[in-house]
Write a sequence for this structure.
């Protein structure tokens, strides 16, 4: 049974903190002697509504300081200048606010390993993300997407670990991007999903969509389960998000709501009064279902 916590409240920072407190015992155990790495999302280094808010990071750090004394690395490979994103969104202030040693890492400039994603394409993956000595927290946003319907905790890490300009290589079509995200998830899953839905995004995500104030936070040590609950809150059919379906069929986490235990608020209490409006290219994004799935997947799943 996967556990997913749901919290609603009027303060983003506290929502994140409270969502993690539900899982504190297991998080402590999973961190053990590892170094914590927080992976925010800077799909834009200028548009705040598209990027991980600093209060999301503060909520995570507030939680960690109750028991963790090690170094914290905040690592991102932005779609743009990563350092500019850290500056624009106030991240460098964190070094003065906390007693942790906080370091910032541009994954676009990290050492890398090559990874074959197709017969004709290789991509570079940040070596730091592949290092099992790091406990990786995916600090993602609740957003619609222009190619894969929704972008949540798994996609945040999968794309962010790709070095620099190689990110474009996974965008070779609807079929290809869903399969490539699945392959990257198999390579490295987040150890902890922290999804900020204080201000979610609908419509023309992941950058210029419209903001919806849901005032919620989602957390889980099973990132696929966290993303599945997020889809339910957004009113998105879980059968339609290809890369998550592939991950579920491969057994990378829980995807059936009957196998997910909700801690805190009920899903129904966290939904908007209607389903999220999806991207205008939504119907095109369903073309992955007409293609043959990646090799090595398990049997079809229940939802």
């Amino acid at each position: 049974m996967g556990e997913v916590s749901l919290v609603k409240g009027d303060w983003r920072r506290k929502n994140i903190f409270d969502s993690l407190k539900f899982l504190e015992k297991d998080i402590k155990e999973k961190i053990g002697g590892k170094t914590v790495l927080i992976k925010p999302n800077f799909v834009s280094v200028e548009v705040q509504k598209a990027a991980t808010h600093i209060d999301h990071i503060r909520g995570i750090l507030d939680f960690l300081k109750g028991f963790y004394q090690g170094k914290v690395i905040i690592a991102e490979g932005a779609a743009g200048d990563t350092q500019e994103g850290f500056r624009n969104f106030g991240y460098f202030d964190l070094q003065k606010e906390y007693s942790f040693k906080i370091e910032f890492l541009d994954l676009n400039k990290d050492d890398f390993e090559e990874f074959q994603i197709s017969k004709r394409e290789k991509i570079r993956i940040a070596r730091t993300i592949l290092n099992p000595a790091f406990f990786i927290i995916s600090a993602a946003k609740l957003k619609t997407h222009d190619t894969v319907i929704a972008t949540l905790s798994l996609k945040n890490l999968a794309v962010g670990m790709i070095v620099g300009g190689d990110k474009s290589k996974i965008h070779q079509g609807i079929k290809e991007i869903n399969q490539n995200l699945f392959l990257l998830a198999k390579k490295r899953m987040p150890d902890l999903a922290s999804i900020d839905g204080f201000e979610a995004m609908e419509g023309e995500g992941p950058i210029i969509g419209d903001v919806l104030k849901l005032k919620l936070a989602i957390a889980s040590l099973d990132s696929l389960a966290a993303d599945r609950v997020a889809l339910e809150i957004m009113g998105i059919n879980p059968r339609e998000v290809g890369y998550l379906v592939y991950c579920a069929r491969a057994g990378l986490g829980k995807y059936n709501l009957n196998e997910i235990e909700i801690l805190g608020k009920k899903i129904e209490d966290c939904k908007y009064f209607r389903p999220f409006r999806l991207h205008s290219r939504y119907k095109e994004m369903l073309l992955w279902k007409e293609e043959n799935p990646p090799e090595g997947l398990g049997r079809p799943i229940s939802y």
Q: What stands out?
A: The mean pLDDT is 96. The chain has one domain: 2-290. Residues 17 and 62 are 7 Å apart (CA to CA).
